[in-house]
Write a structure and sequence with these properties.
There is one protein chain. This protein is α+β, with helices and mostly antiparallel strands and about 120 residues long. It has three helices and five strands, in the order ααβββαββ. The longest helix is centred in the middle third of the chain and has 17 residues. It starts with a helix and ends in a 9-residue tail after the last strand. Bound molecules: adenosine monophosphate (AMP) and zinc ion. The site of adenosine monophosphate has 12 residues, from loops.
C-alpha cells in the first residue's frame, strides 16, 4: 500500500513529468540520478532547479540511506554553479514542507545566483 501510494504520487507529480519529458523544460544537466532545468519563475538572474529522477516528496522523506544521492545533488549544484559562471557566489535552497515554502512535492534544490542575496531570507 505504501509502495502503491508512492507510485500514484509520482504519476501526479509535476517534476516527475518534467524528468520524463511529458512537460517541457530546458535541460541544463542530466545524469542517471539527477536532472537540472531553469525555474519557470526565476527569483534571480540564474535560478536552476536540481531534482532527483526518482520521486522523493521532500527532504523529510529521505534518510541516511539516501546520503549518496543527497551528496550527489550538492555535487551537481556546485558544478552547475561553475557552469553558470556564479564565481561571485550563490545560494542553494531546499524549501521543505508548508512552513519551508515548498510548493512542489518532489525534492528539489534551488540554485540561485547572479545577484547579491539577502539575509534573513524571509
Ligand atoms: P518550491 O516552492 O521550493 O517547491 O519550488 C518549486 C519551484 O518550481 C518554484 O520556484 C516554481 O517557480 C517552479 N516551477 C513550477 N512549475 C515549473 C515548471 N513547469 N518548470 C520549471 N519550474 C517550475
Ligand atoms: Zn515526483
Amino acid at each position: 500500500m505504501i509502495e502503491r501510494r508512492g507510485i500514484l504520487d509520482a504519476m501526479d507529480c509535476l517534476f516527475c513529468k518534467i524528468v520524463a519529458g511529458k512537460i517541457p523544460s530546458k535541460k541544463l544537466y542530466e545524469d542517471e540520478l539527477t536532472y537540472a532545468f531553469p525555474d519557470i519563475n526565476p527569483q534571480a538572474p540564474t535560478h536552476v532547479l536540481i531534482v532527483p529522477k526518482k520521486h522523493i516528496a521532500s527532504l523529510v522523506k529521505t534518510d541516511a540511506g539516501d546520503k549518496d544521492l543527497l551528496g550527489h545533488l550538492l555535487d551537481v549544484a556546485r558544478e552547475q554553479a561553475k557552469e553558470q559562471k556564479l564565481g561571485n557566489g550563490y545560494r542553494v535552497v531546499i524549501n521543505t514542507g508548508a512552513n519551508g515554502g515548498q510548493t512542489v512535492d518532489h525534492l528539489h534544490l534551488h540554485l540561485l545566483g547572479g545577484r547579491a542575496m539577502h539575509w534573513p531570507p524571509g
